[in-house]
């Protein structure tokens, strides 16, 4: 392995670490926002249209009748994608 390749590998590793750090910060920001919204809505006893409007951007229904939900926070979309892949 050449010195140039070692340097490229080191830069690639640093880039990956920085991207992970950025994703973690974005996730933390989203979680804090969700916590603030939930605190404003406490006590939550029923799912109301107001509650849904805070979290759901829009819902489309495919021709097959399957709903496609777009959330306001990427956190929910990512979690559901992970759950569907399990």
Describe, in plain words, how this protein is organized in 3D.
The protein has 86 residues and is α+β, with helices and mostly antiparallel strands. It has one domain (3-85). It has helices at 3-41, 49-55, 74-85, and strands at 56-61, 67-71. Strands 1-2 form a two-stranded antiparallel ribbon. A hairpin with a 5-residue loop joins strand 1 (56-61) and strand 2. The longest helix has 39 residues, at 3-41. The protein starts with a helix and ends with a helix.
For the largest sheet, list the strands in their spatial order.
1-2
N- to C-terminal distance = 38 Å
What's the order of the H and E elements? HHEEH
Strand content: 5-15%
- Sheet bearing the most strands, described? 2 strands, antiparallel
Shape: elongated
**Helix residue percentage:** 55-70%
The computed structural class is: alpha+beta
Give the rounded overall mean pLDDT: 78
**Annotation, overall tally of beta strands:** 2
Unreliable parts = none
Radius of gyration from the alpha-carbon trace, in angstroms? 20 Å
Number of domains: 1
> How many helical stretches?
3
Structure characteristics:
86 residues, alpha+beta, two-stranded antiparallel ribbon, 13% strand, elongated
């Amino acid at each position: 392995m050449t010195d140039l390749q070692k340097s490229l590998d080191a830069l690639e590793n640093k880039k990956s670490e920085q991207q992970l750090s950025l994703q973690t910060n974005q996730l933390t920001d989203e979680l804090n926002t969700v916590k603030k919204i939930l605190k404003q809505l406490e006590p939550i006893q029923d799912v109301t249209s107001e509650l849904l409007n805070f979290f759901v951007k829009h819902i489309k229904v495919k021709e097959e009748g399957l709903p496609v939900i777009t959330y306001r926070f990427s956190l929910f979309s990512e979690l559901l994608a992970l759950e569907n892949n399990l």
